[in-house]
Amino acid sequence: MNLRIPDASDVLQACPIVHRHLTPIPLIRSLALERHLGLPAHRQVWIKDYGWSPVGSFKVYGALRWMAEHAPTLGDRPVAAHSSGNFASGLAFAARQFGKRAILVMPDTAPKIKFQITQSFGAQVLTYQIATDHLTGIRDQMTRQIAEQEKALQASPYDDPMVIAGNGVGGWEIVQTLQSQQRSLSHFLCAVSGGGLMAGHALAIHAGFPDAKCIGVEPEGADDYRRSLAAQQRTRLDHPSSICDGLLSYDVGQHNWPILREHVPHSVAVSDQQTCDALAWLYRHHGLRAEPSGVVTLAALLQRSVDIDASDGDIVCVLSGRNIDEETFQKYLAQAASSS
Ligand SMILES: Cc1ncc(COP(=O)(O)O)c(C=O)c1O
Question: What pTM did the predictor assign?
Fold first, then answer.
């Protein structure tokens, strides 16, 4: 297959398109993290909290860029996609902005809040059984069937040049904020699942701070990117397993792999307990909520899974989403408290 791999110019081109619909998401300095890590005064730690987007996650960036590209030729046809829930709400938001219909296929176990946000933008949602999907392939079958029956255009939640470039807009926001304050960047931490979030960000970060180290973070039970790096080829994990419901893709996308391999040579994995601890830490120190998938980067930093000492610049940690049901949130807070 002939793939069109996006580059930094695609990210720059996506900026005005995405910002027509969204205001930039804040980059928040965390003195608490700087203290926790014992950093010298000239090094700062920043969190990019995509929980502040209109759908509570970063996914709206890529969805808006994808929709802007395809809306002119869609006519009355709907868009269809499978998603663990955050791309579903991102695409639902983007579809509404462009006056289009969206049909989403989500796992039966997705948090209620992800169904609610998606439906709040008028999208139609269907569910599939995630437990047996690795055997039945039902998720992809359903999405394809909808595309055929409804003459819908299918969008990929991560394996698409437009989605990657749109996600990169958030990365470019980070670059601009740091450059406007004459900061330098030594480490950039971001979750990797299908890889669209990190691929877009890595393009932007590399363009702005070519010497910064981009580090991927995954749950221990869903570390296909770490395995891919070790094997030097995309490696599929048949049974990804973690409380991080947004980080359970089987492998990284074909469009993402070449970008990740070039710009993200390091990946670390965190345990679900460390993720719960990070969730509780963020809430205690900043009063911020996040979903498990959103805080794996923070977990890696708090645990010092990344060697940050040999460098001198700032550190940016992406919090990718905050969509978690209240009772689950309380359960994980209790789990963190009982382990400390
Ligand atoms: C909150 C959150 N963070 C990270 C990711 C991973 O994004 P990607 O699949 O582009 O790597 C997802 C994917 O659904 C997500 O929902």
Answer: 0.97
